[in-house]
Amino acid sequence: MYSFLKNLFFILSPEFAHHFVMNMLRIALYIPGLNAILSYQKLDRYNLAGIPFKNRLGMAAGFDKNAEYVDILDKLGFGYVEIGTVTPEPQEGNPKPRLFRLIEEEALMNRMGFNNYGVKKVVENLKKLQGKGYIIGGNIGKNKWTSNEEAHLDYLKCFEAMYNYVDYFVVNVSSPNTPNLRALQDKDTLIKIFDVLQNYRKAQTRSKPIFLKIAPDLTDGQLDDIISVYIQMKIEALIVSNTTIDYEVLNENKAFAYKEKMGGISGKPIGMKTNQVIRYIKNKDKSIAIIGVGGIYDAASAQEKIDLGCELIQIYTGFIYKGNGLVKEILKGIVPK
Questions:
Q1: How far apart are the C-alpha atoms of 133 and 54, rounded to whole Å?
Q2: What DSSP letter does each residue of 58-117 carry, written as one string?
Q3: Which DSSP state fits 225?
Q4: In 3-state terms, what secondary structure has residue 321?
């Protein structure tokens, strides 16, 4: 059924379709019969960093930027939802068009640019979700106009404001769509960011885990630095990975990508690249906790990430192309490592 509806949805612009479909789902989930068809839950607790995730499959950041759809995604079967990326001040993001479907390759190409309502409004939305049993991650970033030298202060603002309303945090320094953001993956800069966040955390009554999301385009030397920071700062997990700006992963859409230079590629084509990064990190240190995301489009590709040593997995683009059936397929198909 979803493949039929997808043809209709794909007539719409990607951003409009995103919000239209999610709002239609909200209505459908309140209709008896449709609710039974759409809803799915597989409770298979998996503990990471002290959090009892409902199951190992989460919705990746970028899908629900402003904590508007957590309840819907939970009903569809996701074990957790990572909201954001959230910045201190509201941000419109880059000019449109900024999101393209690469249909032949089951991929997306985007240069969204951290468009979000800002942390104040996001916290208002998060407050409405309290006490309902959702597992929520807060993916945080800096505003476009904040210099890299002051970036740690932006991360701290979001961290402080959201601290009581999410279960874990993700420091996003790996989006290719904010100028110079990926330079924050530099070792000394990362230490500076984690230092201020961890100092704030020490003063709180409850300790919230802080993860780091990295790019799939890092050199071996850069990955070695990431591993060093992970160990030094006692980071609880790495999320591997964000979108790639290596357009060589594409086939049919390669020329289009090089022409438009519209930012990062996600979806089926980046699976191998993401897996290479996971494999490199695990070969260096098997104790590093990894959440795998990128190129998961069926149960087999999800299982591959788990077999490589991932504790949890996330999807986004695969969900756009396959709908809620992909959630069921993965949760029924994956087996423990």
A1: 9
A2: EEPTTSSTTSSSHHHHHHHT-SEEEEEEE-SS-B--SPSP-EEEEGGGTEEEE---S-B-
A3: H
A4: helix
CATH at 289 = 3.20.20.70
* Total number of domains in the chain: 1
Q: Are strands 80-86 and 99-102 parallel, antiparallel or unpaired?
A: unpaired
Specify the pTM: 0.97
Q: Are 308 and 275 in contact (CB under 8 A)?
A: yes
Mean pLDDT to the nearest integer, 218-242: 98
Domain presence at residue 251:
yes
* pLDDT surpasses 90 at 278: yes
Could you give the residue numbers annotated as active site?
175
Range of the domain at 314: 40-333
Please write the tens of the pLDDT for every residue from 84-117: 999 999 999 999 999 999 999 999 999 999 999 9
**Confidence grade of residue 302 (pLDDT, cut at 50, 70, 90):** very high
Q: How confident is the model at residue 62 (pLDDT cuts 50, 70, 90)?
A: very high
Structure tokens at 29: 């989930």
Q: In a 3-state reduction of DSSP, which class is residue 158? A: helix
The Cα–Cα gap between 62 and 84 comes to: 6
| Residue 5 resides in a domain | no
181 inside domain = yes
Six token digits for residue 163: 């601290």
Number of separate helices (H) and strands (E) present in the chain: 13, 13
Cα 136 from Cα 80, distance rounded (Å): 6
Token duo for residue 307: 């077999």
Side-by-side strand order, sheet with 99-102: 99-102, 107-110, 264-267
- Return the H-helix or E-strand segment holding 283: helix 271-284
